[in-house]
Amino acid sequence: MTNAFEIIGGKPLKGEIIPQGAKNEALQILSAVLLTGEKMTISNIPDIKDVNKLIELLGDMGVVVNRLNEDTYTFEANNIDLNFFESDIFRQKGGSLRGSVMIVGPLLARFGRASIPKPGGDKIGRRRLDTHFLGFEKLGARFDYNAETGFYNVDASNLQGTYILLDEASVTGTANIVMAAVLANGTTTIYNAACEPYLQQLCKMLNRMGAKITGIGSNLLTIEGVTELGGTEHRMLPDMIEIGSFIGLAAMTGSEITIKDVHYKELGIIPDTFRRLGIKLELRGDDIFIPAQDHYEIESFIDGSIMTIADAPWPGFTPDLISIVLVVAIQAKGSVLIHQKMFESRLFFVDKLLDMGAQIILCDPHRATVIGLDKQVQLRGISMTSPDIRAGVALLIAALSANGKSTIYNIEQIERGYQHIDKRLQALGANIKRI
């Protein structure tokens, strides 16, 4: 299996690109099929490793999975094998997939128990799972960690609605607790709930299945427990991280690109954040058109101080696009401070950009100042390794804008989040191949 991309950069691209379905939404929605024995039809599912692994895991548990076409599946979870959760296969597959924690809420709600191996996954600092488990405990679940087997065992035969104030507005934590609470006795109130579009999508789908959730889109969710849920159909939103990545790609390479069917109103602050870097975008219907730009200038604040772009929980700027904004700023006119507040160690790929000729001061693990080159100096191609999904795509964008040949290793990381990215970029005229 080849595991590197070779890129000859420095030429503009042109054309249309369709964003894939949202990965983060998919992991929640697919876990929710476990809440009912009736048929669920889910479309716009991205064809990427993390999602395919979860679909395979659902099949292993006894869910009947049918693939209707490239992006649409049906799921029927009316015959789940609960003993599977103590098996070595589950330990191996569940342990290698961070998203597997998302099945715990639905299993607790419907069957009153679950086991989960200690999770692995992405290297972006310490992502705690405490939020999930504290929420389950408040609903009345008891769990113990068995150090010998490496499994968390959870007993939830009598979940009761309650008031929960989350210690952090975790998207997956909120989703997991919502899925547990929809079938609990009584009313659950979740305050400091995450309110990302993915989570709104999950709550709307659960309501179509018969759940009673109010406050969707806010940070205060109220869930009246019901006794059972039925089947429904659901279509994923397009992936906003891909959309942001393609905006950055167009600007950095001076390309004219149209991003199709973006569900613009669900993108929140993302388009405006790129506009603050001086990037022109036009909304045409539900497509974003980015004209070819030789030049884009970072705005400064009204008092003339340096622009700062920082991530924050929704509706703030998503941390998954911080690395993209940082790379795009390299060729802007002006300077910007990039502040990655929510995860540690996500800016450490900056050393590769310095090797390519970028002017960046890494202030500390959370902050970097980018001094824009204003396209006066082209980056140069180098050989590099992708540390995680988001940095990998940022490096890919840098390589496509650079002069000469770049090689990116460890592209499995990129492919965990972006389906067939090389083929889709080739369709825009990119010189990228697997080696």
TrEMBL record:
It catalyses: phosphoenolpyruvate + UDP-N-acetyl-alpha-D-glucosamine = UDP-N-acetyl-3-O-(1-carboxyvinyl)-alpha-D-glucosamine + phosphate. This is UDP-N-acetylglucosamine 1-carboxyvinyltransferase. Its main location: cytoplasm. NCBIfam families: murA, PRK09369.1. It comes from the Bacteria. UDP-N-acetyl-alpha-D-glucosamine binds at residues 98, 320, 342. The lineage of its organism: Bacteria, Pseudomonadati, Bacteroidota, Sphingobacteriia, Sphingobacteriales. It comes from Mucilaginibacter boryungensis. It is found in: Cytoplasm. SUPFAM superfamilies: EPT/RTPC-like. It is an enzyme of class 2 (transferase). Cell wall formation. Adds enolpyruvyl to UDP-N-acetylglucosamine. PANTHER family: UDP-N-ACETYLGLUCOSAMINE 1-CARBOXYVINYLTRANSFERASE. Pathway: Cell wall biogenesis; peptidoglycan biosynthesis. Keywords: Cell cycle, Cell division, Cell shape, Cell wall biogenesis/degradation, Cytoplasm, Peptidoglycan synthesis, Transferase. The active site is at 122 (proton donor). One of its GO terms (molecular function) is UDP-N-acetylglucosamine 1-carboxyvinyltransferase activity. Belongs to the EPSP synthase family. MurA subfamily.
